[in-house]
């Protein structure tokens, strides 16, 4: 099923992504990927969520890391090419655009969690944390595009907040 979701993101990226300006978005794509890689490394021994495959391709998509890498290198670039490539100018349209993406990502996660059993939550994480995370993530992605240093600084503060709020023991960091 993860193959299907990633294929849909790829097709959407091909159709609606701003490919003419991909170089402008490249550093934000890397920021997005690095954030997920950082999560995977720091919380390897204390996961908050993990992917699994049980519908299609379970022999290829054997574990969370393989699925995460596929998402990072297929869905994330497609997301950025659409999200930043079509980012509106007025404040109300910006708010709507961010909200639309938060709803899309949160709804996909809820479907994967409750109905398809393609993701699991652990250690205090739940769908409401995911919604908050998506709000922060899509806001930070736009901030990164406009001001990368500010986005990195805010991300550091966000990581500290998550560690504190979810009481993640420092000895669990890999």
Secondary structure blueprint with pairings:
Blueprint (H helix, E strand, L loop, with lengths): L1 H15 L5 H21 L6 E3 L12 H20 L7 H24 L4 E3 L5 H20 L1 H18 L9
Antiparallel strand pairs: 1-2
Average of the residue pLDDT scores: 94
Numbering strands along the chain, what is their spatial order in the largest sheet?
A: 1-2
Query: How many helical elements?
Result: 6
What is the gyration radius calculated from CA atoms? 16 Å
Structural overview:
This protein is mainly α and about 170 residues long. The protein has one domain (about 1-170). Helix content is about 70%, strand content about 5%. The protein has six helices and two strands. A two-stranded antiparallel ribbon has the order 1-2. α1 runs parallel beside α3 and α2 (about 20-40) packs across α5 (about 125-145). It starts with a helix and ends in a 9-residue tail after the last helix. The model has no long low-confidence stretch (mean pLDDT about 95).
